[in-house]
């Protein structure tokens, strides 16, 4: 089948290990099902895998991809929930130290077909295109848990979203605005700041710019490049929720003094549960939210999408179509 895989890894030239072409169908483990993928979204996770982060070299070649929307064997329209727990794990799968995302141990979604545990399906929301539905299981789920589980913000609160153009960031802006939050957003790029306003942000700022007021919570995925700004942007007692560090995880200053003096909360966040994905799907359908898509690219031309993401030239989600 046609698939997109990591065949080698390089920290400096991640695209050198990207393969797009024919690959053998992976085996179907007992209790797993096969989904015919209609659309699959690209995530920064796929670039990290090519850089050798989170994917040991002895697992190569590995089919990439965490997100997908498609048909199950009965023809139902489904979303793929990409977190696979270790055997017997009960409660919150994101707390399982031995969990994995599709493409870390088991082959991922950037293919014509993907195998997943039978319990990892959620109905595709009516009213969303296949491409929009494919955005939900990773970036949108991560933004949902950051906002509503970990930042625990309420309508009327003010949040700051760093790096407005990214997949998680655009999701956070759209979800936050739909939930009645006042959303501030930063971006390095003027066009992405304009986009953030279109998506529902109240005000937008250049990265690092002084805000008109301090915020209740910051949604941080950029990391080193924005960390000090995130700490400075918070009101006393405010919350930073961090789920990524695209620009690096070693900021010039850790800001420990400001964190304790302002009694800030710093909360890590990773993906979400299957139940949160189901709630996200209902919320998106109920509010008529249309996930922002940067571009739709045939799977066979996936390299183009990876090139754009490595350059940081993304406004919303890049989606591959079978
Ligand atoms: N923990 C989890 O479960 C989880 C889930 C999803 C994603 N993540 C992580 O969250 C991060 C974002 O993921 P994504 O899929 O949304 O990525 P993405 O679509 O590639 O977005 C990355 C964004 O980071 C911003 N950025 C700002 N300064 C940057 C700099 N100096 N260098 C690079 N980027 C910079 C850019 O925004 P502007 O151009 O607008 O400034 C860019 O659009 C990644 O590191 C990813 O691994 C974690």
Automatic annotation (TrEMBL):
An example molecular function term from Gene Ontology annotations: oxidoreductase activity
Membrane-spanning ranges: none
SMART domains hit by this protein: PKS_ER (SM00829)
Keywords assigned by UniProt, alphabetized: NADP
InterPro entries on file: ADH-like_C (IPR013149), ADH-like_N (IPR013154), ER (IPR020843), GroES-like_sf (IPR011032), NAD(P)-bd_dom_sf (IPR036291), Zinc-ADH_QOR/CCCR (IPR051603)
Pfam family, one: ADH_zinc_N
Gene3D superfamilies: Medium-chain alcohol dehydrogenases, catalytic domain, NAD(P)-binding Rossmann-like Domain
Keyword NADP on entry: yes
Domain of life (superkingdom): Bacteria
Domain Enoyl reductase (ER) positions: 13-320
Protein name: Putative Alcohol dehydrogenase or Putative oxidoreductase
């Amino acid at each position: 089948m046609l698939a997109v895989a990591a065949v080698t890894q390089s920290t400096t030239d991640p695209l050198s290990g990207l393969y797009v072409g024919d690959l053998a169908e992976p085996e179907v483990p007992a209790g797993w099902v096969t989904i015919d993928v209609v659309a699959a979204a690209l995530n920064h996770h796929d670039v990290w895998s090519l850089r050798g982060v989170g994917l040991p070299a002895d697992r190569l070649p590995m089919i990439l991809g965490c997100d997908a929307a498609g048909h199950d064997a009965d023809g139902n329209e489904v979303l793929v929930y990409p977190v696979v727990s270790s055997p017997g794990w009960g409660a919150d799968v994101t707390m399982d130290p031995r969990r994995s995302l599709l493409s870390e141990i088991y082959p991922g979604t950037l293919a014509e077909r993907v195998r997943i545990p039978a319990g990892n399906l959620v109905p595709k929301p009516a009213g969303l295109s296949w491409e929009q539905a494919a955005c939900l299981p990773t970036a949108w789920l991560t933004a949902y848990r950051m906002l509503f589980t970990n930042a625990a913000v309420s309508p009327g609160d003010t949040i700051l979203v760093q790096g407005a153009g990214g997949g998680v960031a655009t999701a956070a802006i759209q979800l936050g605005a739909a939930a009645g939050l006042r959303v501030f957003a930063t971006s390095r790029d003027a066009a992405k700041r304009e986009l953030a306003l279109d998506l529902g942000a109240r005000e937008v700022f250049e990265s690092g710019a002084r805000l008109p007021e301090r915020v209740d919570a910051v949604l941080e995925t950029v990391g080193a490049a924005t960390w000090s700004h995130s700490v400075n942007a918070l009101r006393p007692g405010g919350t930073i929720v961090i789920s990524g560090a695209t620009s690096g995880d070693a900021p010039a200053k850790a800001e420990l003094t400001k964190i304790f003096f302002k009694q800030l909360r710093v909360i890590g966040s990773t993906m979400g549960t299957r139940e949160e994905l189901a709630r996200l799907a209902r919320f998106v359908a109920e509010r008529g939210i249309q996930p922002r898509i940067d571009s739709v690219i045939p799977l066979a031309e996936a390299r183009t999408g990876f090139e754009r993401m490595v350059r940081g030239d993304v406004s919303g989600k890049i989606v591959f179509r079978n």
